Amino acid sequence: xxxxxxxxxxxxxxxxxxxxxxxxxxxxxxxxxxxxxxxxxxxxxxxxxxxxxxxxxxxxxxxxxxxxxxxxxxxxxxxxxxxxxxxxxxxxxxxxxxxxxxxxxxxxxxxxxxxxxxxxxxxxxxxxxxxxxxxxxxxxxxxxxxxxxxxxxxxxxxxxx
Amino acid sequence: xxxxxxxxxxxxxxxxxxxxxxxxxxxxxxxxxxxxxxxxxxxxxxxxxxxxxxxxxxxxxxxxxxxxxxxxxxxxxxxxxxxxxxxxxxxxxxxxxxxxxxxxxxxxxxxxxxxxxxxxxxxxxxxxxxxxxxxxxxxxxxxxxxxxxxxxxxxxxxxxxxxxxxxxxxxxxxxxxxxxxxxxxxxxxxxxxxxxxxxxxxxxxxxxxxxxxxxxxxxxxxxxxxxxxxxxxxxxxxxxxxxxxxxxxxxxxxxxxxxxxxxxxxxxxxxxxxxxxxxxxxxxxxxxxxxxxxxxxxxxxxxxxxxxxxxxxxxxxxxxxxxxxxxxxxxxxxxxxxxxxxxxxxxxxxxxxxxxxxxxxxxxxxxxxxxxxxxxxxxxxxxxxxxxxxxxxxxxxxxxxxxxxxxxxxxxxxxxxxxxxxxxxxxxxxxxxxxxxxxxxxxxxxxxxxxxxxxxxxxxxxxxxxxxxxxxxxxxxxxxxxxxxxxxxxxxxxxxxxxxxxxxxxxxxxxxxxxxxxxxxxxxxxxxxxxxxxxxxxxxxxxxxxxxxxxxxxxxxxxxxxxxxxxxxxxxxxxxxxxxxxxxxxxxxxxxxxxxxxxxxxxxxxxxxxxxxxxxxxxxxxxxxxxxxxxxxxxxxxxxxxxxxxxxxxxxxxxxxxxxxxxxxxxxxxxxx
Amino acid sequence: xxxxxxxxxxxxxxxxxxxxxxxxxxxxxxxxxxxxxxxxxxxxxxxxxxxxxxxxxxxxxxxxxxxxxxxxxxxxxxxxxxxxxxxxxxxxxxxxxxxxxxxxxxxxxxxxxxxxxxxxxxxxxxxxxxxxxxxxxxxxxxxxxxxxxxxxxxxxxxxxxxxxxxxxxxxxxxxxxxxxxxxxxxxxxxxxxxxxxxxxxxxxxxxxxxxxxxxxxxxxxxxxxxxxxxxxxxxxxxxxxxxxxxxxxxxxxxxxxxxxxxxxxxxxxxxxxxxxxxxxxxxxxxxxxxxxxxxxxxxxxxxxxxxxxxxxxxxxxxxxxxxxxxxxxxxxxxxxxxxxxx
Lengths: 161, 673, 342
Description:
The complex is a heterotrimer of chains A (161), B (673) and C (342).
Chain A: E1 18-23, H1 27-36, E2 45-50, H2 58-66, E3 71-76, H3 87-104, E4 112-116, H4 122-139, H5 144-148
Helix pairs in contact in A: 1-4
Chain B: E1 6-11, H1 15-18, H2 23-30, E2 36-42, H3 48-61, E3 65-70, H4 73-86, E4 94-98, H5 100-104, H6 111-131, E5 138-141, E6 146-149, H7 153-164, E7 169-172, E8 187-188, E9 193-194, H8 195-208, E10 212-215, E11 218-226, E12 229-236, H9 251-255, E13 259-262, E14 270-273, E15 275-276, E16 288-289, H10 295-299, H11 304-308, E17 321-327, E18 329-332, E19 336-338, E20 355-357, H12 358-365, E21 386-393, H13 408-423, E22 426-431, H14 441-451, E23 454-457, E24 460-464, E25 476-482, E26 487-493, E27 495-500, E28 502-504, H15 508-515, E29 542-544, H16 554-574, E30 576-579, E31 584-586, E32 606-609, E33 614-617, H17 627-631, E34 637-639, H18 644-654
Helix pairs in contact in B: 2-6, 3-4, 6-18, 7-8, 7-16, 12-13, 13-14
Chain C: E1 6-11, H1 17-23, H2 28-35, E2 37-40, H3 49-53, E3 60-66, E4 69-71, H4 72-84, E5 85-91, H5 93-97, H6 109-119, E6 134-137, E7 140-143, E8 147-152, E9 162-164, H7 171-183, H8 269-280, H9 286-293, H10 299-303, E10 318-321, E11 324-327
Parallel strand pairs in C: 1-2, 1-3, 3-5, 5-9
Antiparallel strand pairs in C: 4-8, 6-7, 10-11
């Protein structure tokens, strides 16, 4: 297992977990091609196939973060090459708005990334996963559930409420 | 908890998966997952024994969902859907977990991580499978007419095969005549038979086939629909000639006073008139008027062609015509572009007169070309005494194209032979590697070696007219390292031929997008599988043939053209297509008519029903991308097979090891005081 | 003892509007008074916690609970009333999804204390006094309930039977709920008493296909009173907000704020808005998209104004500092730094 504590000591012996949303036509096939070509990349990505990045409901992103993912990587066809004409442009706008919204909730924009790879770009896919993994590794674990656990009531004297 | 019974099958794929992922551990682990009734690992799930195992378990164990953890769904999803269907289970209740391409093959250096990731992928697939609903594919009849785009040798063969089987073909060609690049060639390697002699009969057959409708000087502007039922809009550019009256007699172009350089057919080496037929064997025989060079269109005077036309076929006011046709299948055979040799300034093309491209040389050596087949320098009279042929110009070069153009070595040998035959000049080939694979090609190479052609192994560094040494004055000097003897060489020659690369058409990505297919990194159209499905594309009903798919020679282009015909005829023979039932549906009772979704659909499949104040998806037009599904602010659009619940469950499944338990309601444990 | 069903009304962290909203059923309140035995309503009647604690479990037939849970006292009362009530209704947006008090989840306890007792411009606190959990006075020790980092909704603390959305709920829905309770015609537990369409369904404005080139804040334009506000670039939450109010805000030229919460089955109303709004922005390059989004300040505040505490993420991330956790201060939020714009 790769040692991610070199990027951020908070990882300990854990590895980042990134949820991927890959479009059926370009990026999923790019991932397939990366496999066929035996291009290695960190085992941090767990992907979901959707027909088009246009199907990407921001709810899925917040769901993944809430459920313990440290990052979300959405990949589609290059702009202008969407199998469904323009789905990736919609994803581009939704992700931009989502990144701004999440930033206000303390989620760094690097944790939710949108990238492109055509079906022929296994190499680009591989590099994207590597880069994303490193970015997330530097940011440290997300562990959203920790945010939801109430700290112990501060009842000791002298500690403000 | 759900009542479903899931069967999980973990494939070893020989060592492909089992060599990296601990498949026994994974399958044992999967057996513990909620709802999993059966979990097994097996050497090759896609084998008939593997499939039978699934079928048997469905029947015996009463499985209601099947998850196969193996390769990409693009590889074997149809295989296992078939197995499920044979056992009486709806095929859309099957789910594939891709632990080969997405795990074992990419995490070979970290086996424990690959194993853990495989578990997560399977957990996601199992959770997703629970949310799947049975679906029935749409069935639609196949329109028996086929559209072939591109009238080169690949498209011609595709069209002839399909037409020969008795079905209608629409052949669309951008240029005024079919024939493509092959029509420009003189001889063809390795047999040296004359290109025109073998191509012309085929072109003639196309022109005369009752089943082929030829639309030359035309381009496809828009493609809608799906396999079996495409609607295509084609622009027929105005020829300015009434083809019902024209006899192809030639009076018009003989009288036309406007002469322009013919950049297309003559590769810039010769001239044509403004009203022209690209070459004598052109099909169809009718000329076109090039309005950009026609004197009448420039200044309103001349009309020489109209005056001399014996049948009154010249129609200056003819307009472009747009036709809309319905076809069932589409073959793309749009060919290649020739590499622009100016992009490598060191070779001096366009600056040094006697540097020619291979296409120019084809025309020069062609008996019907601008020099009547004489091999001469740019002055038009002097025969060269020494000729250099530089290979890989724009190929195998990280500055231009990294791929090999596949045909240039053989074409260079052909040129060397023709130069020798016609001028007896000394010929020097500057090559990186000689690539003469395929039948009888190596024999031709041996023949050239015996003919006394010189071969210098080394990429030419530059072509210059700056003489430095005696004997170089007035010559072109090719500088190269002869890597076989390890020395720099300067070879003075009279003529240089650059073997230019085959490149994707300049508008290839635009065309690919128009037809809904993909392009490789280099820009050629992408086939469905590089080995096992070389002429199909990711889009059903659209096939590719010839050099639009990648550099190849005539026999390979012909084979692909005919292969596409076989695929098209196969579909026509079936009579109907099954289309994935992945569609969006709006719950009209709950639609509030906000109209967010209305202009998101690229296929205009969403209508707003004003009187009811709701939006509605037309399933025939919907292609199932899911954009409207994601956008609906009241979440009342369902995307079949990729439903909200199925994806949410898959997320939970994928994160089974990191998510906190009891997510739904986190009740704070506290007793009232 | 009275044979009438027993009714309790309680407010936790809320503004008090819901209490008034209950009275907004006008003369029907007399029917309520006649039909129910009011056993606990601190705002109106002088019952004490001890009176409730003395009741048998499940003795109260219905409790209308409004307000979010942000202190231990709130939580304690929620648990107590849950235990003593047959039916617990999360009444109004605060109890249902956190509402305005839930916006505190953009910060944490430390930030709140700092601002409220020190930094707010109206504060006059030269000695820097802060409330303490325990204060010793000659008469003994006084205690105050602990104040939480995170505001919670009622159902994040105790199980809830029914929900009544709105800030505050419209009288007709309160009335419908009361009538349902009185008649015993209750929907299945867990139901929201309300509609399953969005505000657009009740909004008479004319809507067109949407293409938004820029957003306007309400003070920037005078909107056409007949056309959809969103079509005019005014951020209206109506598209993603449960109907039931009769499109009150849009009918006075103000974009819907979203107080009825998201539609049925929607777990994260903010994400729905992001998806819908992102879909119809008329821009294709990252630069164009940024330019449009720059006209939409504070998207999280807009989209999660009422639902932050009940959203998927519930609050802003707490960063760990010296072993202690704190919310990321807004000025450190990356998107405000132009260099980090993606």
